[in-house]
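Example record for the data management plan.
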Amino acid sequence: MSVPQIVDTLWPRKPPQTVAAQIHNRISSLRHILGAKTIETFPSGYSLTSSPGSIDAKVFEEEVGRAMSLRATGRHDEATVLLRTGLGRWRGQSAFQHLDGEPFDREASRLEELRIFALEQCIEGDLETRDAAELVPELVDLVAAHPTHERLHHHLMLALDRSGRRSDALNVYLGLQRRLADELGTDPAADIQHLYQELLSKDRVVPAHAAEPQPVRPRLPASATRPDRSAPVGAVASQLPPDISDFIGRGRERRLIVDALTSGVTTQTGTAARAVIISGMTGVGKSALAVHTAHLTRDSFPDGQLYIDASAFPRNWEGLRGVLGRLLHGLGVSEDEQPDSWPLRQDMYRSLIASRSVMVLIDNVTEADDMRAVLPTGGSSAVCITTQVSSLAVDGAVRVPLDVLDADESGALLSSGLSPEQLEGQGRWIEEVLAVCGGLPAALRAVGNVLAARPHWTLQRCASALTGAQDPARELSLLGRSLAEAFDEACVRLSEDSRNALSALAAVDAERLTPTTAGVLIGCPAATAAAFLDELADRNLLCPVRAGEPRKWVYVMHALLRTHLQATLPDAQYLTVLGRALREAPHLVRRRPMRYGEAPEAVLEFAGGGPAAAG
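Corresponding structural encoding:
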């Protein structure tokens, strides 16, 4: 973790002034507890490497996974013993209960959900091998602690019925039914309704204080049952955007994605689906590659292909409700049959998709929370995610980072939409256009669109327009949006400090950035600058490249992004950065800015460099 990540995690609202000292003291304490070699210091932060078996939570997760594998092969007794062993590692609530902050709350919730899942599975096994009456006290306590957890109520009903207490079992259902209606506005799941009707029909025993239950709406509507494989193809969801007919390049990445989505061992029921994460900078072709490979794998997912553009929905509960509504519609659930709240929509979505073979493409994800709720479960489905955030994580996902195209692929992409007449004798201008575009597929396709829409233009005219523009990104548009607008959207997601740092790094034409040079431009210590560089690289606004020496890296910014940021940089900020560069590292100032016309000496003097520095 980088130091800024640690600060944001421990002090999300207002870090103390002694934050550096506190972090150092806490790391020292951890090293004393865990061993000096467990935590390693890096320029940008710290890395913790645990020894096998030393983390209870990880061991518990592994034991649950092995138990599910045993159950899948019919070895139920061994699975139950292993689950009991794992549950025995718990000595109370999660260790995160006394720590404030969203990351701790999220991890505590995840571990608690896994604990309850293990309990469900363990009791399910015990119901087959132990005296049901022995399980009733434990289940009564669990139901009291989780009053809306339907699976635990289901197990308690079975245990009571097998203990000769059928009336009590029926009353458990009616209590759950009232509670779900009052608190969530929904009905019990289909399996527990079926159990209730089955118990009710045995000797027609009616529980005390109970009448026949009111008709209840099934959790899964009839229209949402698994599609008939003999139905016409049009009945299967196909929400994918159109494929690109002349897709060029990315051969290695295409093979990697297709193999990851369709090959290998099918995952266990209830676990996350096979996943691929495609990451890269704005305009590098993440969405185009994802859509293309999703079309290539259509035959592997006979129950359909679902698509969500995460950027089209607000990042709040209402947006998540809309996302789940669209997915449910693709699975055959009409709007009238969908629950109102997003948690219930999530339950319905996961229930429907668990037994299907579906491809889910989640495009333009900016944060992990944007897609966690819609990750499919079940061994036959798969998910493909595109994101600008390299650190976005999904357990077991194959990562596919995209770089710009090489010279051959760039030339092929630029030429693909042009006629032979448009290319004839234009070699020099092709090279100029390629140099401006810098291998960025969105820029290259935008040039092709311009020339296709304006047949009276030549590559020479296009090259002149781009090389003469102060901000070429504004001249390049694709699907009604300029590349400059796409860059701005990516920058808006940064904090104010990070946006200012990015603008400062773009102020001069420094092709390779190190923490030292970045510190000069940003106006901060090299260690702080290193954290900014890592954050911006994580957002794919910078690209780390090897510097030619072992274990040494530098950072580069795409020329189109740099010229766009230069064109939009306020004069006051530019002069501040220029002054710092001239005073501390004049070699960074390779050329004077065009925006200040023919008075460079006055500009430099105002910026703090003076005539001597200008020379």
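Summary line stored alongside the record: The longest strand covers residues 359-365.
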